[in-house]
Prior knowledge:
This protein is α/β, with parallel strands linked by helices. The relative contact order is 0.17. It has helices at 71-81, 95-105, 122-125, 132-136, 167-172, 182-195, 220-223, 228-232, 248-261, 274-282, 296-300, 340-355, 359-362, 380-384, 402-410, 419-431, 436-453, and strands spanning 18-22, 25-29, 50-56, 85-91, 111-113, 130-131, 146-147, 150-151, 154-155, 158-159, 161-166, 199-201, 286-292, 309-313, 323-325, 327-328, 331-334, 388-390. The strands form 6 sheets. Strands 4-3-5-17-9 form a 5-stranded mixed beta sheet. The protein has a 4-stranded mixed beta sheet with strand order 12-13-11-14. Helix content is 33%, strand content 15%. The radius of gyration is 22 Å and the shape is globular. Helix 1 links the parallel strand 3 (50-56) and strand 4 (85-91).
Amino acid sequence: MKWSKVTAVSLAAVMAASMATVGGSTVVFADGDLNYADIKLGEDYTDLSADLKLLTNRTDMLDADYTGKNWDAYLKEFNEMYPNINVEIEGITDYAQDSLLRLQGGDWGDIMMIPEVDKADLSTYFLSYGDVDSVSEQVKYPNRWLYDGQVYGIPVTVVGRGVLYNKKVFADAGITETPKTPEDFIKDLQAIKDNTDAIPLYTNYAAGWTMGAWDDYIGVAATGDAKYRNQEFPHAKDPFADKGDGTGAYNVYKILYDAVANGLTEDDYTTTDWESSKGMLNNGQIGTMVLGSWAYPQMQGAGDNADDIGYFAFPITVDGKQYSPADEDYCFGINAEDDAEKQEAAMVFVKWMTEKSQYSYNEGGLPIAVGDEQYPSVYDEFTANNVEFISNEPALEGEEDLLNELNADSELMVGAGGNEKIQGIVEHAANGDEEFDDIMTEWNEAWSDAQDTDGVEVNE
């Protein structure tokens, strides 16, 4: 099965218009008439009663011992404003694939973190929050699940992309400033190996999903171009080739290959462990890890050395400047099949999470609600180095699902769960059985074949 292509299932007919009395006022409800922008938290729907289920990838937040703010704490605060809306949280460990199966089955709940579905199918599965113009007045990042002018997903978090590191390890290694090029980064990793007992770069190979993080840097971070990821990359000729200037996808993945090949990672990549890596970074056993900013508070909370955890921009410089994507993580989607009351309650919960919960801030994310300018401390070094945050522009009209098609036909799944290809880089670098340039040539050939299959015009 090609996970990016979800076969639509038969769903119930479009709901007829109905009347709902909520919060002391009568609201006319019909398909398309419930709008995110119209909801006033604490004023509307305060008397609404509903039982909801939310599917989430954040299984760790179901643990009472979670080092950050767990789901129970958020729900308690939500119920102070909306006491009769009960939200059950169900966590899924292998979320990327299992959530698709649940979505296809139809009986998945009321709110979910939207998995990789074709955008043409969004209205089949999910309720629109409203047109992009109205949603944009209240949400800074409405484009991730935008189709035909309608917004179907509100970001749970929006993350910057960089490198986690232990400041004390860097100081002990004699590193006085964070790296800004691939060459500088490899030199710093070597300095950590030569001067400390820490693992310079921890791959987190065994977890699988952690490896897919490397895909997140080939767009804005490697090009400085807001159009590249969704508009130019699908049409690019040999997008994994070396551009010769230290930028682009080639140099993102080469950092990983070179680090492994030069012995700058853990001794046995098959024995890495995601949960224990948090404490290892906190206590100085690990120097760096390549992950989104969402991981920063988890690393801080994993031991007694929160102040030693830092975060710097991915080490690629484009024309003298560094960039970070402002990437929508998973987005909340509301079940299109739900009755009016459930959809109203679900939209209230999503809006509360966005505007009142401070979830994105707490999880190391960028502010999502318009008017919120509170950036967490994880980005202090980005600010000091004038790193620019850029949000990816949406795909061109008529090409909303082109990247999905190319990903599926090439089997590379860039930014869509293509963890195995990144694991392959680690394996080949460790075994010394394939040169990096040969790997990139194979990827380029697969991409080119997919472009031919899908009739894509290729730009030289």
